[in-house]
Amino acid sequence: MNPRTERERSTWNRRSTLDDLGRALQGPALRRTREILCAGARGRTLEVAIGTGRNLRHYPPQIHLTGIDPNPEALARTRERADALGRPVHLAEGDAGRLEFPDACFDTVVSILALGSAPDRRAALAEMFRVLVPGGRLLLADRIEYARFPARLVEARREHPRRLPREVALEVGFEVGHHDRLLFGLVERMVAHRPT
Fold first, then answer.
1. What is this structure's pTM?
2. Can you tell me the mean pLDDT for 156-184?
């Protein structure tokens, strides 16, 4: 992992103990977004930044789920949650910007409130594109509070300013079928696919 990824990993290792508390405090709009996006998964599914496995119960039972996360503590909690739910899942420590999977090996990629912590959004979305089969679906929701004024001014001064996930997804080759915003425009939700 590169130094930026290592810094993010260290931050998320510290935050993993608060992850379930955050789930309890999460509003109905985000809970419903998780339910909707995960229910849309089909076939071989990869969840990028699976965290502590809060989405596991929303996936259809027939999918073959793989989850990656840079945080080994979070993955251990995901394993416990998966075992309690009786949900088979393959878990691996990994970097969204360097997925260690062959080309075109997943039917669905899911990323919920995770892309914002990726050190390089473009690299992460390009990797998601690469591992999807032609026609495969990307189901994504992410925070975009930085896109609103006055946060936009602060963001422009960062070394690596963030851009809207939809813009970056289009740039790397995805076709966006649906996108909207929720929570007063602070979260962008998107369904896209890799062209056939």
1. 0.82
2. 84
